[in-house]
Amino acid sequence: MASRSLSPSGRALCPPGGEEDSVPGLYAGIAGPGHAPPGPLSILLVLTTGAAGVMGTLAWWRNADHDR
């Protein structure tokens, strides 16, 4: 059984098993031998999310108020 991260109030920050079931965790093999490696769609979703974050950050910087 995996340990869960808890907030100061004692509530779980992620669902049980959420730490082992992340795509990077599965790709690294830290989830153990009972878990299948991530498929191409899972890796594509991680890359797409990262690219969207970079593009959003660059757009924010470009459109930010730089008067100060």
Short précis:
This protein is 44% helix and 0% strand. By secondary structure, it is mostly helical.
Word description of this protein:
This protein is mainly alpha-helical and 68 residues long. The chain has a domain at 23-63. It is 44% helix and 0% strand. The chain is built from two helices and no strands. The radius of gyration is 17 Å and the shape is elongated. The model has no long low-confidence stretch (mean pLDDT 76).
What key attributes describe this structure?
transmembrane helix; mainly alpha; transmembrane; membrane; 68 residues; 2 helices
The secondary structure category is: mainly alpha
Low-confidence stretches: none
Inertia-based shape? elongated
Biggest sheet statistics: none
Number of helices: 2
SSE ordering: HH
Q: Could you give the distance between the termini?
A: 52 Å
- The percent range for helix content is 40-55%
Number of strands: 0
Q: Please compute the radius of gyration using only Cα atoms.
A: 17 Å
Q: Strand share of the residues?
A: under 5%
Mean pLDDT metric: 76
Write the layout of secondary structure elements.
Elements: H1 23-28, H2 40-63
